[in-house]
């Protein structure tokens, strides 16, 4: 909370010098010649320009000569300013409420997560595979489950042109596919009608206790970092403690991130008690030069600490974390922050590679009050990178797994938490000293190729801090 107030105050204090330094003749259009719509767009442009010029982690890489009237819309202006070489995450939206809802795990949704693949003989045609479904969702009520294959949307083949409708349409009919004995995908003849609803997608999707070689192993599949999930997480870990759990498998294979307060909270539920109760540094924030100098003058602590107020702590000396290329940002912050304090055994695939956090910025006046007439605009802006106590950061190519294991159980429909899952089986084989062999399935099915994460839901792709008065 202190940092939020500092940032908002600093934005207000520095607004005039930033504008004076960045204005040109083209940034002073005659406002009396503008329509009301043009005036509001220009005002939103100015909001995006001011905040990006000042608070952006890569503010030093903004091309010279750009002003707030350099583009006809805020989105186009930001694209001129964005540091495209590294920044794949910052963006501007004119639907601030929807963006804020998604940040808190609420969206209009069918309630599933999807992976996509393509056919080798028809590159424009796609298929979707259900990775998991949320409790109480339309997808769950329709009977969809992990491994189910979607081939058609409203009677048409799924393609590169219409696949986004599986996320963003309000209602639809999907045609299902099946994995044949011959190792290919065909139509099953089954279809489902779904209506999207607005709901909270509870990220605590699956948890259990596995008996392995005389040891109790806690398993948790966690889908997104939301403060709203803290109470549920604490309940799960209290259950683990009561069951005598001495090993933990934390499944982050599809976790794209969320808010910045949850990684240290989650880590503090199981990390060594010496780190948690000792209030050791979890991560350190590095902002741009302007802000780092301000924080230095203010003697502001840039460290993020373990949370000693969590209601339970398993006090483990190692954790098994399951990862894929969809393990991003807040998930990577969890891995990074824990590395100096315990054995973090990564099983799966290389992570996504996002080592920075974004602020959710809404338009403010000089007194820090929301500018209501453009309050529909929201800027999600990368403002700092996180560094662990060993100096580990800027892993733009991702964090390598300790043991490389494919997520090949997906097409087989192996449920989350099932010991037949290749990633879980690998963890258990390590825990039991190799007495249980890891499961293996074909990585690819004949004639298809699974695609990397396709980035359809930007609010889920990062670690974010809210800097608004909403």
Describe, in plain words, how this protein is organized in 3D.
With 470 residues, the chain is of the alpha/beta class. 25% of the residues lie in helices and 28% in strands. It is built from twelve helices and 22 strands. It has helices at 2-22, 36-55, 74-81, 96-103, 138-141, 165-168, 230-242, 262-268, 273-276, 289-297, 330-338, 422-431, and strands spanning 91-93, 106-109, 112-119, 122-133, 149-153, 156-157, 171-179, 185-195, 197-200, 204-212, 215-222, 247-251, 257-259, 281-286, 303-305, 318-323, 343-348, 356-361, 378-387, 403-404, 448-450, 462-467. The strands form four sheets. Strands 1, 13, 14, 15, 18, 19 and 22 form a seven-stranded mixed beta sheet that branches. Strands 3, 4, 5, 6, 7, 8 and 21 form a seven-stranded antiparallel beta sheet that branches. Strand 11, helix 7 (230-242) and strand 12 (247-251) form a beta-alpha-beta unit.
Secondary-structure map with pairings?
Layout (H helix, E strand, L loop, with lengths): L1 H21 L13 H20 L18 H8 L9 E3 L2 H8 L2 E4 L2 E8 L2 E12 L4 H4 L7 E5 L2 E2 L7 H4 L2 E9 L5 E11 L1 E4 L3 E9 L2 E8 L7 H13 L4 E5 L5 E3 L2 H7 L4 H4 L4 E6 L2 H9 L5 E3 L12 E6 L6 H9 L4 E6 L7 E6 L16 E10 L15 E2 L17 H10 L16 E3 L11 E6 L3
Parallel strand pairs: 11-12, 12-16, 13-22, 16-17, 17-20, 18-22
Antiparallel strand pairs: 1-19, 2-9, 3-4, 3-21, 4-5, 5-6, 5-7, 7-8, 10-11, 14-15, 14-19, 18-19
Helix pairs in contact: 1-2, 2-3, 8-11
Task: Please describe the structure with a list of short key phrases separated by commas or semicolons.
470 residues, alpha/beta, seven-stranded mixed sheet, seven-stranded antiparallel sheet, 28% strand, globular, disordered N terminus
